[in-house]
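Run log // design_07
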C-alpha cells in the first residue's frame, strides 16, 4: 500500500514537472511568435518608421539590441535545459538497461538524483537568464526611456499645480 502511494506521488511529481516544462516551452514559443509578428508589422508601418528621430531613434535602437540579446540568451538557456533533460533520459535508459533485480534501489536512486540535479541546474539557468533580461530592461528604462520621453510636460504640470 505504501509503495503504491509513493509510486503515485512520484508519478504525479514527474507529470507536474513535464507539464511545467511544456508550459515554459509554449510560452517561449508564443513570445517569439509575438516578437516576430511585431517586427514584421513594424517594417510594414511607414508612419512608425518615419516617426523615430533623435532620442526616440536611440531608444528604438537600444530596444532592438536588448530584444536581440534577450532572445539569444533565452535561446541558449532553453537549449541548455533541453540538453540537461536529455541527460536525465539517457541516465534513466542506462539504468533500466543495466539494472539487475538486486540493485533496483541504487538504480532508481541514481535516476532520481540525476533528475533533481537537472531541475536545479535548469532553474538556475533560467533564473540567470531572467535576471540578466530584467537587468537589461531596468538599464534601458533608466537610461533611455526617461531621456526619450521627457518632453517638458513635467514643467507644465508643475506650473499648473501652482
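design_07 sequence
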Amino acid at each position: 500500500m505504501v509503495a503504491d502511494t509513493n509510486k503515485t506521488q512520484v508519478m504525479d511529481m514527474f507529470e507536474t514537472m513535464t507539464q511545467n516544462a511544456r508550459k515554459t516551452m509554449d510560452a517561449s514559443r508564443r513570445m517569439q511568435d509575438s516578437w516576430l509578428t511585431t517586427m514584421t508589422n513594424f517594417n510594414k508601418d511607414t508612419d512608425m518608421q518615419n516617426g523615430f528621430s533623435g532620442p526616440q531613434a536611440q531608444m528604438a535602437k537600444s530596444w532592438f539590441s536588448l530584444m536581440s540579446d534577450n532572445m539569444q540568451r533565452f535561446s541558449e538557456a532553453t537549449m541548455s535545459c533541453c540538453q540537461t533533460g536529455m541527460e536525465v533520459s539517457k541516465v534513466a535508459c542506462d539504468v533500466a538497461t543495466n539494472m539487475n533485480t538486486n540493485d533496483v534501489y541504487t538504480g532508481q536512486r541514481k535516476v532520481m538524483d540525476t533528475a533533481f540535479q537537472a531541475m536545479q541546474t535548469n532553474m538556475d539557468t533560467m533564473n540567470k537568464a531572467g535576471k540578466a533580461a530584467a537587468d537589461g530592461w531596468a538599464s534601458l528604462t533608466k537610461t533611455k526611456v526617461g531621456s526619450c520621453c521627457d518632453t517638458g510636460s513635467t514643467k507644465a504640470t508643475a506650473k499648473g499645480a501652482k
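DSSP finds five helices and no strands in the chain.
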